Amino acid sequence: MIIKTLSIKAFGKFKDQTIELKPGLNLIYGKNEAGKTTLQTFIQGMFFGFYKPYRKKKTYSDEYQKYMPWNQFDYSGSLVYQDSGQEIRLERNFLRAKDSLFIYDNSTGKIINDQFKYDGVIRQHLPLDTGMTTVIYNNTVNMRQNLHDQESRGQDEVRDSYIEMQNSSGIEINFKGIARRLEEKKNQIGRSGQSKSRIGAAIRERDELQGLLKEAEAAYAKVAENQEKITQNQKLMKRIEAENEYLSQESVVKRKKELLLSYEKINKLEKENNRLSKIIREDQVYEGYSYKILEGLKAIKNQAERLSDQMNYIEKEMTDASEHLKAIRQKEATKRSALGPHTVEGITEDYELFKKEQVEVEAVDKKSNILINIIASLVTLLGMGLVGMANIGLMGASQGIENLSLTVGAALAIAGVVGLSYGVSATLKKRQILKEKKLIPIQDEILAKYQLTDAPSLDSYYKKIVRNQKELEQLQNEGELIIVQHSRHQAGYEVLFEQRRGIIRELEKKLAQYQVKDIAEYAERCEKGQQLEELKIRFNGNLRLLENLLETVNGGKTDAGQAVWQKASPKSADLLSLGKEIARLEGENSALTEGIGLPVEIQETIKSLDAQIQAFDLEIQACNAALAVLARIQKDSHRESVPELNKNIGAILETITQHYKGVKIDETMKLKVVDPKGGDFKDAEQLSAGTMDQVHFAFRYGIGQRIGDQMPFILDEPFVRYDRQRKTEALKLLAELSSKRQIILFTCDEDEEKLLKSLGADYHKINL
Fold it and tell me: Would you give the distance in Å from CA 203 to the centre of its chain?
């Protein structure tokens, strides 16, 4: 792959800037704060966007906000790259609400998004078919300034991508996907100690049921014991009842006297309850109306009123925005009317033509035939000199030479005088022309076109038009901003409108359900409903009193509770005691069995939960076994493939450092360097900062060639802490690599260019 063009419309500090890259080594030079890191991040953003990896929904990374331009109306750019003979153009809009990616065939202009893999999380196609992710990209081919600490997930992904690439079986093994799905399945099942997990909930429910089973078994054992006592007491009561003598004549007479007052009270209570029953039947329609529901209806109404207030506020904001926009449009019209029938482009063209002609006229004023005058003067002096020398005999004894000198000198003197006269005459003539006419016809036409008198008035007019145009553009930008704000207000208003309409519908539905037209009517019915409840309470109180009186009458008791038949029933106390004991035992049995299921049913449920827990355990064991197999496969693949990688990276490190050459890479892609003196292993972090830079450069160089050999190798200030020798060796490596793949090297140090020249390396330099 070769990146050919970076076109930045708005990104970080850059705006409307295009950078052309070449195959091979591209040296991008810029001082600090020139935008090197911004440009490097732009390339990353064009390929991958700014989305956090490993998310189930679209989430933006911190870089999105960091590189957003101050003018947040535009945040976009394009990138053209060549791959397998095809030129592809990426156009990306980074703005959160409008983020998009269009992929074009740059030769035909056809959109080819559907030819690339689609990511359902970010809802975009991925512009690379290499399987490269943003994590692998930043851990291999994209080397940022002084960035050594790789994220653990990034190391895992680089490791898995490398192992999958080394897989020679011909079968694609997606270690990351399989392991992630197995872990997700385990997480869905959970652990036994997690009360909210599926297996934890099942275990908790089983344990609770086992406790309930013990309680149920104990309760039903007690119920069986009580039932046996009830049966015995019932048999005893039958024997006592058979022995009692009932109702002597004297007892009947006495009973009638004692109960006469009870009859009168019963009659009075029955009349009152008949009256209350009639009122209750008439007011039964008000039953079910409660103040609790009334408060709920009022809360719904208040919510609708709050939404109405918010809608009124938004309406006011929208009206103000419309008025403001109208005022802006009027100002724009006024600014445009100032141009009359002309355009800014036409006025600018005429003004530049006027200035061009004015410069040419002034140039004429500066020309005065000086060269002609100088030559003529020299010729005149030469001629006079020859004549003078001939007259005084300095030309020798030959008369012929003297005559020739005299003749030539006279001719030169005459020619010089004529030339000098012509030059002076031409100069005076040109100055006279300029004095008589300063403006040429084209300038006169331009002034007449705009009804102006002279050049200063044209300058003033043009400055006014330029200022007017800038103000017009500012008004247009302000109008666009107001339109955006108005659209947001409109969207918010529509949301509030739908919410309020839903609430109003809910309120109307509830009012219709309670058969009232408004909340006031419901409140009135609540009051009548409360009165109805009070009447029912009074009615029920009378009814209980009637029942007690009837029990007294029918049970042969006086108002004082004394038994009328005590003499005729000497064992009535025993019967009463037995009846109370039976009632107590039945109540105890009812309390024992209340809320407790049958032991058999609980046992069946426990058996079902045990089977479910066992199934969960088997699934977790299967997942763990599969993960162990994957880990063993990864370990074996690492063991098979890492020697070659160790060798390649070690060779690169030895070339740069001329000291370290042994490199070991563990299963997590952590680097260890072999100390050539003692043979000990050292972590890269234990080395000096400069050497650590070189170790990581060698790692990136080596792993990048294996994983991302098609992608350009991008480096930002990688040699800051290198000494000159190691920097030279590293640049030599990059120069050699540039014959196979594109290299983009960012630097603020001119030393890199000097070293590349000393190495005779080809490179393309770009100044920021």
Answer: 40
